[in-house]
Each structure stands twice: as C-alpha cells, then as structure tokens.
Amino acid sequence: MQKPVVDLSDCILCGVCVDVCPEVFRMNNAGYIEITELTDYPQACVSEAIKNCPADCISWDADNEHIQ
Ligand code: SF4
Q1: What is this structure's pTM?
Q2: Mutate to test the pocket of ligand 1, among 5, 6, 20, 35 (most ligand atoms within 8 A of CB)
Q3: Is 53 in the pocket of ligand 1 (CB under 6 A)?
Q4: What tens digit of pLDDT does each residue of 43-58 get?
Q5: In which domain, by residue range, is 36 found?
C-alpha cells in the first residue's frame, strides 16, 4: 500500500493540502501537517494535494514493502 508522506523540513504550512484533501491531511495541535492513518488512501485527492503543494514536499512513500 502506498502512503503519502510530507517532508516537514520543506513544508511552509500553507494549508493547501488540508483544503484540497482533508480526509488525509490535517494540521495537528503543534501546528504541523499530519497524515491520517487510513487503510487505503484516495489517489486522486492526494495527487491533487501533491500537484498544488507550493513547496513540493508531499510524495508517495516509495517503500511499499513496509507495512506500517
Ligand atoms: S500544501 Fe505542502 S507546504 Fe502547504 S501545508 Fe501542505 S505539505 Fe505543507
């Protein structure tokens, strides 16, 4: 299963991913973006967030072998 990841060192906390795909991305109490744990991630919605992220810091976790 592929899982989206956010590189927090590049994230500028613009909130676009949360606007575009709130079922996956949320801002936690500490003010950082978190990925909601899902068994299946909506491809289209995550792709939209990846496309619109101004810092280009969202990607699919390439390591599919790893079940988290
Ligand atoms: S769209 Fe990108 S830069 Fe903006 S909050 Fe989300 S991960 Fe961070």
Answers
A1: 0.88
A2: 6
A3: yes
A4: 999 999 999 999 999 9
A5: 4-60
